[in-house]
Design brief:
The protein is built from three helices and nine strands, in the order H-E-E-E-E-H-E-H-E-E-E-E. The chain is mainly beta. The protein is elongated and about 50 Å long. The longest helix has 9 residues, at about 65-75. The strands form two sheets. Strands 1-4-5-2-3 form a five-stranded antiparallel beta sheet, with helices on one face. A four-stranded antiparallel beta sheet has the order 6-7-8-9, with no helix packed on it.
């Protein structure tokens, strides 16, 4: 029970650049899990999550329900924390992406690249993958 009570102290928010002051709608840029052994004393590797290269973002670490459940079941021998990178859509997001731009997007646990073939509207575009296939994607899932 104490795991759930103390979980609130395991959350952090680290803003990069002027994230808090930037106007726009927040969206999840990327997500990852950091795993630990022995009540968080020994990290298992270092999780690498993608961050926007040219815009402000906020990195949030938290102890989510499933993280707490797994920690409780294992008696704390194995534990996890969720890492989310949040960014903001600004009014000029559509002008940020243009036809012909090379973009990166996540498929499962891997990142792939493609080229924007056309802009559908203010939120979506058509991306041609390296395989030659095209797919309609939201701007929020793309990065340059």
């Amino acid at each position: 029970m104490s795991v759930f009570i103390l979980a609130s102290c395991m959350s952090t928010r680290t803003s990069i650049s002027n994230f808090k002051e930037t106007q726009g709608q927040e969206y999840k840029y990327s997500k990852g899990k950091q795993c630990y052994l022995f009540w968080g004393l020994i990290p298992l590797g270092r999780t690498s999550v993608a961050t926007p290269s040219d815009e402000p973002c906020q990195i949030r670490t938290s102890f989510r329900f499933w993280d707490a459940l797994l920690t409780t079941i294992t008696g704390g021998i194995f534990s996890m924390q969720t890492i989310k990178v949040m960014a903001k859509h600004t009014p000029d997001t559509q002008s940020y992406f243009q036809t012909g731009d090379s973009v990166m997007y996540k498929v499962g646990t891997k990142y792939e690249t493609g080229i924007i073939k056309s802009v559908v509207d203010g939120e979506q575009c058509v991306v041609e993958k390296a395989s030659g296939k095209t797919k309609k994607m939201k701007f929020e899932n793309l990065s340059k």
